UniProtKB/TrEMBL annotation:
Keywords assigned by UniProt, alphabetized: Hydrolase
Name of one Pfam family that matches: MeaB
The keyword Membrane is assigned to this record: no
The protein's name: Putative GTPase/MT1543
Protein family (similarity comment): Belongs to the SIMIBI class G3E GTPase family. ArgK/MeaB subfamily.
InterPro entries in alphabetical order: GTPase_ArgK, P-loop_NTPase
Protein source organism: Nereida ignava
Length: 322
């Protein structure tokens, strides 16, 4: 299949094949993937929305109803997952189609589970490429989902235009548990499960987050009122239109202020840095001679005969000569 011809037509099979290609670790696939990436049309941009939340908060329920809300408006929606746990467990707990049954049957939606982390630099590195592929295939919105664990949120925020944090209704004490760093990168804090018995707690929690967000410094380039806390029920689809309106308002304002473009340019610079960083490491490890020297250095450090700094400096010096 001619991927470069088929992708812009929105051919989903072509998209799936292209993703498999960029996720492959075989050297010849990497070359083909890099060639494909270079040929992608640059005039297509999707709205990239990052979404994070702990397991059980309702991410799949939210993505299912939010995704359907968007496809009902004629938008094409891709859902990708960045799952830091899939490396260890081997299985994926995100982006699983069975979690979003209706959306996965929607012809205007495309759901891709998290790739397993077999490569240096891991999942984020490939996810950036997959986002670009989805854009080239004409998707209007790319939702990138992650679990609130470790570095994955920062990673996803660095791939998205808008980053949303999904929260559950909670007591006041639990609010303290949210890491400040995460609040600082969130554009939207969405309190889910605002229905039935949980509605009162959700209203309180939402007010608490709104208060906490007001204490943070407003980002330049953002409209008044952001970052914002809001309430939804993914189960009843209540509040989804407001979330979508907020995201669009943020997009429009940022595009006009120039923040949007700057953010993407900065992200591209970091993407380049990471490619270079991990590419160099791969080069070092894939060359048998260098790989052997690295192993020797490890052993020497283990024996205490060489310091880590010295060992690294020696390898870099020998690498420079080759
Ligand atoms: P995930 O692990 O973050 O993907 O969470 P799920 O989407 O699997 O949801 C976890 C549980 O919360 C499920 O039992 C859902 O039915 C429930 N849930 C999700 N959204 C809502 C909601 O808006 N209201 C209520 N009451 N329950 C919800």
């Amino acid at each position: 299949m001619d991927l470069i011809a088929e992708l812009p037509k929105g051919n989903r099979r072509a998209l799936a094949r292209a993703i498999t290609l960029v996720e492959s670790t075989r050297a010849q696939d990497r070359d083909a993937a890099s060639e494909l990436m270079a040929q992608l049309p640059h005039d297509r941009q999707a709205l990239r929305i990052g979404l994070s939340g702990t397991p059980g908060v309702g991410k799949s329920t939210f993505i299912e109803s939010f995704g359907l809300h968007l496809t009902a408006q004629g938008l094409r929606v891709a859902v990708l997952a960045v799952d830091p746990s899939s490396a260890r467990s081997g299985g994926s707990i995100l982006g699983d189609k069975t979690r979003m049954e209706q959306l996965s049957r929607d012809p205007n939606a495309f759901i891709r589970p998290s790739p397993s982390q077999t490569q240096l630099g891991g999942v984020a590195r490939r996810t950036r490429e997959v986002v670009r592929l989805c854009e080239a295939a004409g998707f209007d919105v790319v939702l990138i989902e992650t679990v609130g664990v470790g570095q994955s949120e920062t990673m996803v925020a660095d791939i998205s235009d808008v980053f949303a944090l999904l929260m559950a209704p909670a007591g006041g004490d639990e609010l303290q548990g949210v890491k400040r760093g995460i609040m600082e990168i969130a554009d939207l804090v969405i309190v889910n499960k605002a229905d039935g018995d949980l509605k009162a707690a959700a209203t309180r929690t939402c007010a608490d987050y709104a208060g906490a967000l007001r204490l943070l410094r407003k980002r330049s380039g953002d409209p008044v009122g952001f970052p914002k806390a809001s309430m939804v029920s993914a189960l009843t689809a209540h509040g989804l239109d407001e979330v979508w309106a907020d995201i669009k308002a943020l997009r429009d304002f940022r595009q006009q202020s120039g923040f949007w473009q700057t953010r993407r340019q900065d992200q591209d610079q970091r993407w380049f840095d990471q490619e270079l960083h991990f590419g160099l490491l791969e080069l070092l490890h894939s060359d048998p001679k260098s790989a052997r020297i690295v192993e020797e250095a490890r052993e020497a450090i283990h024996q205490g005969t060489r310091t880590p700094v010295r060992a690294a400096a020696q390898i870099l010096a020998s690498f420079r000569k080759t």
